[in-house]
Amino acid sequence: MPFAITQTCCTDASCVSVCPVNCIHPAPGEPDFGTTDMLYVDPRTCIDCGACADACPVDAVFPVERLSASLAGYAQVNADFYAARPVSAAAEEGSPTFHAWQQPTFTRTLPADMAPLEVAVVGTGPAGMYAAQDLLLHTSSRVTLVDRLDTPGGLVRFGVAPDHPSTKRIGEMFARFHRHPRVRLLLGTEVGSDVTADELARRHDAVVWAVGAPVPKDLDLPGAGLPGSIAADTVVGWYNGHPEVPADAVDTSVSRVVVVGTGNVAIDVARVLTARPDDLAGTPVAAHVPPALRAGAIREVVLLARRGPEAVAATAPELRELLGRSGVDVLVDEHDPRITESLDGPAVGAAHALLQGAAREKIDWSVPAERPRVVFRFHSAPERFEGSARVQAVHTADGAVVPAGLVVRSVGHRGRPVPGLPFDDERGVVPNDAGRVEGRPGHYVVGWIKRGPSGGIGANRTCAAETIGSLLDDAVAGRLPDRSGHPSPVRSVLHRLLRS
Ligand code: NAP
């Protein structure tokens, strides 16, 4: 009875570290690591010990025989990953098609005799918490965790959709460290107003910036600013109860919603807006959401893409879940011959293959949906949003007019400059070398502010390992700024904030 990894895989490779037979891949250090939607158990070599399931922070690993009906397909998904890969590492060494599996390696610097460092981590989302966890588990450092909100967790708390409780569960793993004896937790503290970045730096040996990419990218199109045209972050904050998003931020009285973009955020928005309110019961959804959906009229979400199905931005596990839901049809609008060609041609990846299996129809947008549905409309870039008092329709570059009472712009994110640090305006990141901020000794970045806004929660684990590795190397080599003469955080303004 081998085990299989399923939909909620966060790819943080906790399972790889504990597997006694090295049967989970791609592993850190292997060429594919970080490029696949998930990790996979090789059923040919799995010894059914279950260590991976115990270690998984998001409850994604199960014995194949105990997979629920909705996850049953993952036995094949795991096996398929290995179908073209040899069991023997030596068998295909040097082949351009196959690569040999290696023992996973987790190289890092762990100087046992290092004096405790004082490190500030700004941001308590997954990137900040993986960085803090690395410092706390592998060194005797003391960590000051800073977050501008009163509730820690960043995107785990306010980004992950409430109907993904297994993914949210990773927040419990991070929360253990909020109570760690070498952690000071400074909530409701904004760097820049409550404490300056300089003050933070003077009182710590190093500052790790884990501030994400909080600015929604926008569409510079006529009508984008009309009432009823909102950023996906507003919907995500609305269903997660973000303190800065009011309960009436999303108008559910409309029947059709257009979402621009086909990334995982767009899929989350489409799924939650078309959810049966009762299906959200028992999830951490904000209390105002089920009544708003129940009293509302949303029957249809249209996902607008400027490119074809082969370029869908969502990952395969998210699409598989969307397509597998009962009670909500998922269709591809076959309005353009390029779409038919793409859907009938060779699959360019797992997500494309899933769309090839979806229902197709040429949609007449003047006819309201009879049943709840999610429609993918590819090759259809938005051109302008029509409306006077509020948005009423989306005009697309291919000449369609899609009536809609709500438009959600889900076209990605950008980092925001951190005062005092250099900023790459084109990429929206702080320029860095393996996490070291260019020209600012003692400052480090991790997560989306380091590498740009892509990748799920688990990608931050290896990202944090790299940054903390750089920090420890610098500490050992004496490259951290000398803060002798400055008060320690315990006597500092930070301490006063902590007690207030
Ligand atoms: P994303 O994956 O980068 O998707 C952005 C979407 O916006 C793409 O479809 C893109 O189309 C489209 N787009 C960008 N500019 C556009 C424009 N000017 N006009 C029309 N369309 C435009 O971003 P995201 O959905 O915000 O997700 C961010 C990251 O978080 C991703 O790595 C995602 O996987 C991750 N995430 C993961 C989960 C999960 O695992 N469940 C959940 C949420 C988020 P083009 O491809 O044509 O540019």
Give a summary of the structure in a few sentences:
This protein has helices spanning 14-18, 51-55, 74-83, 126-138, 154-158, 165-168, 170-178, 197-202, 232-240, 264-273, 289-295, 316-324, 337-344, 350-356, 448-451, 459-476, 493-499; strands at 3-5, 24-25, 40-41, 61-63, 118-122, 142-146, 183-186, 206-209, 215-216, 229-231, 256-260, 300-304, 329-333, 359-361, 373-377, 382-387, 391-396, 401-403, 406-409, 413-414, 432-433, 436-437, 443-445. With 500 residues, the protein is of the alpha/beta class.
Q: Superfamily at the CATH H level of the largest domain?
A: FAD/NAD(P)-binding domain
At the first level of CATH, what is the class of the largest domain?
A: Alpha Beta
Overall average residue pLDDT: 91
What's the CATH architecture of the largest domain?
3-Layer(bba) Sandwich
CATH topology term of the largest domain? FAD/NAD(P)-binding domain
User: What Rg is obtained from the alpha carbons, in whole angstroms?
Assistant: 24 Å
Question: What general form does the structure show?
Answer: globular
Strand content: 15-25%
pLDDT < 50 runs, ≥5 residues: 89-98
In order across it, which strands form the biggest sheet? 10-19-11-12-15-13-14
Q: Which range best describes the helical content: under 10%, 10-25%, 25-40%, 40-55%, 55-70% or over 70%?
A: 25-40%
Ligands bound here?
NADP nicotinamide-adenine-dinucleotide phosphate
> Any idea how many domains?
3
Helix/strand/pairing category: alpha/beta
Multimerization state: single chain
Terminal residue distance: 55 Å
Quantity of strands, as a count: 23
Largest sheet: 7 strands, parallel
Helical run tally: 17
